[in-house]
Design a protein that fits this description.
The protein contains 6 helices and 3 strands; from the N terminus they run H-E-E-E-H-H-H-H-H. By secondary structure, it is α+β, with helices and mostly antiparallel strands. It has one domain: Sufe protein. Chain: A (Alpha-Beta Complex). Strand 2 and strand 3 form a beta hairpin.
Length: 156
């Protein structure tokens, strides 16, 4: 399968690309196999119902076409969402929003959802907030993966 028109568009014209000054949360994840690294930044505010929502979101990604496209689309999917809803954005939703991905590139959609989860984890932990058990498990797994990548790069 070739990349969809939407994937190519997000690759060529990424939404919300760049570093954010003074983010409320930062999520950094990577894949040891392909070398993709994503960093996602969030600013949290309150909506009219006084629920915490992602008011602003940006990303920086080092990786392939699919890595950049999934990073871009997750910012669109998460912006304006409550933290709880944003945590529930999964790979299938990301892939569907892009009109599909080649099977070998599905891992990029997982990385994008993990980067968002890490940014929310960072925000909650910085603010001494309760962290849902499922997010604690994701964080531990993501942290171990990132450590492997950093060790790999130190050896070179």
């Amino acid at each position: 399968m070739l990349y969809t028109k939407k994937v190519i568009d997000h690759f060529k014209n990424p939404h919300n690309f760049g570093k954010m000054k003074n983010p409320d949360g930062v999520g950094r994840v990577g894949n040891i196999v392909c070398g993709d690294v994503m960093q996602l930044y969030i600013k949290v505010g309150k909506n009219k119902k006084k629920k915490e929502v992602i008011k602003k979101i940006k990303f920086e990604t080092f990786g392939c076409v699919a890595a950049l496209a999934t990073s871009s689309i997750i910012t669109d999917l998460a912006k304006g969402k409550t933290l709880e809803r944003a945590l529930n954005i999964e790979k299938a939703e990301i892939v569907k929003a892009l009109g599909g991905l080649p099977p070998i590139k599905i891992h990029c959609s997982i990385l994008a959802s993990e980067a968002l989860a890490e940014a929310i984890y960072d925000y909650l932990s910085k603010n001494n907030r309760e962290i849902p058990k499922t997010l604690q498990v994701k964080h531990k797994r993501n942290h171990q993966g990132l450590e492997k990548i950093e060790k790999k790069w130190q050896k070179k």
